[in-house]
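Message: I would value a second opinion on how I read folds in token form. Give me a protein, with the fold worked out from its sequence. Write it directly below this note and I will take it from there.
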Amino acid sequence: QVNSKQGGSACKEKQVVLLSPVGKIEISGCETGVHEIKLPKVSLLPRGAECSVACEVCEGAEDMPEPLQQCTAWLRAYFCEPATTETLPLPAFHHPLLQRDSFTRRVLWTLLKDVKLGEAVSYKQLADLAGNSRAARAVGGAMRSNPV
């Protein structure tokens, strides 16, 4: 369970596992938003696996909160129909790291808002976008703790 920012009450966290072309992706969250997305360390799918087969929720489909439904829909589109991702809403995020006011939060939100899908940026470029051109090492630390 994760404490929310409002009053410190605990979230009722759910977990979903999405079978994808890169393996099993674990997504956790609550009614308020996505807490974390964990990618597999090693691809587990056989070569040639079809997207239509490989982009399905394999665990936790029952009583899935709206943010997790939006997240799985977005990831399914990303792997199977990338052109449609721009039309889908991003789910709300509710990890404590993204709630408190910090440089890490600013970096992660900048990454989400200002770096386009498939675009690569250096830590220095991301530091510039986040408003502190001398903070490339701090950006590296923020990215290391990125829950999504």
